[in-house]
Amino acid sequence: MLLDNRGLEPPQPMMRTLAALETLGENEVLTIINDRRPMFLYEQLEELGYQQRTEEQNDGSYKIEIFR
């Protein structure tokens, strides 16, 4: 599942991401693209039992893959 959060003001990207995680299947990966590194999201993901991989893109955005 891919969720493009670019252009949204906080807290919209985090709210959209957390809502999408509720629909994520057991072995699925949620990939989000944000304008900035989602520092507050990382804490939420850890509490919910998710792992993540963050990669800065050439355009300055961030691609975050979220999985269990």
Structure description:
The chain is of the alpha+beta class and 68 residues long. The chain has a four-stranded mixed sheet with strand order 1-2-4-3, with helices on one face. Helix 1 links the parallel strand 1 and strand 2. The radius of gyration is 11 Å and the shape is globular. The model has no long low-confidence stretch (mean pLDDT 96).
State the shape.
globular
N-C termini distance = 14 Å
Order of helices and strands: EHEHEE
Alpha plus pi helix count:
2
- Structural class of the helix and strand makeup? alpha+beta
Largest sheet: 4 strands, mixed
What is the strand content?
Answer: 25-35%
Fraction of helical residues: 25-40%
Radius of gyration over alpha carbons? 11 Å
Residue-averaged pLDDT? 96
Trace the largest sheet across and list its strands: 1-2-4-3
Report the strand count.
4
Instruction: Give the uncertain stretches in residue-range form.
Output: none
Short structural description:
By secondary structure, the chain is of the alpha+beta class. The chain is 29% helix and 29% strand. Strand 3 and strand 4 (62-67) form a beta hairpin.
